[in-house]
Design goal:
8-stranded mixed barrel, globular, 8 strands, 4 helices, Sortase, Chain: A
């Protein structure tokens, strides 16, 4: 009888260890969805003049990034450091999320933070320094980086399921931005040319390590802005 209890205890312990990451992934997904709803509710309460002023400052920041673009570093490579543009400082000093990334195909909603250091990537997805702030507009290209899963957090674990013509949404204080996937690619960490700003285009790309559990390459989901009512 005592031996059976030990066997049962060992079995239950093993089962708990096996299920723990999956349970925590579900809990963290729920937390991210709650944060997304809180962000949307908070932005709805903002006075219009605050939205207009913030948008104007963000547009100036993006114009500065476009005019002075020097490329950017791969966020997953050791030695990654943040770029600084003086006009962007008000945003970079804010630790709150800047928006929410929604990917319907993956049933994923996750906070967007400015910067892509480990601090930001441990909480959500990060806007890679040197890319545009995620507010949309011509001659912008925002690059959002996310880990390929963190054991207890899904993050970009299933990003490889995205295909051409899928859509994803960026929710910010300025509203909902819709992007349609026009290309999926795999590159080396140093091959960042395809992530540069293209004059006249409104682009957003999602980047993560590839293949899963390795970091030799980068998986890129390239999106271009389409009408807000587009459903892919």
């Amino acid at each position: 009888m005592r031996r059976n209890k030990w066997i049962l205890l060992i079995f239950l312990t093993g089962l708990l260890i096996f299920l723990y990451p999956h349970i925590m992934q579900q809990i963290n997904s729920f937390i991210h969805q709650a944060q997304a709803e809180q962000f949307k509710a908070r932005t709805k309460e903002l006075p219009q003049h605050v939205i207009d002023e913030t948008l104007t400052t963000a547009q100036k920041c993006n114009e500065s990034i476009f005019q002075n673009e020097g490329g950017f570093q791969d966020p997953f490579t050791e030695g990654y450091s943040q770029f600084r543009y003086e006009v962007c400082e008000p945003f970079l000093l804010d630790d709150d999320s800047f928006g929410t990334l929604e990917i319907p195909k993956l049933n994923l909603e996750i906070p967007i933070y400015l910067g892509a250091t480990e601090n930001e990537l441990s909480k959500g997805v990060g806007q890679v320094d040197g890319s545009s702030l995620p507010i949309g507009g011509k001659s912008t290209h925002t690059v959002l980086a996310g880990h390929r899963g963190m054991g207890t957090k899904e993050m970009f674990r299933n990003l490889d399921r995205m295909t051409v013509n899928d859509v994803f949404y960026i929710h910010t204080f300025s509203g909902k931005l819709t992007y349609k996937v026009y290309k999926v690619g795999v590159i080396f960490p140093y091959e960042t040319e395809s992530l540069r700003i293209v004059e006249g285009r409104d682009l957003a790309s999602l980047i993560t390590c590839h293949p899963y559990r390795h970091n030799s390459h980068r998986l890129i989901i390239y999106g271009e802005r389409v009408d807000e009512n587009s459903d892919g």
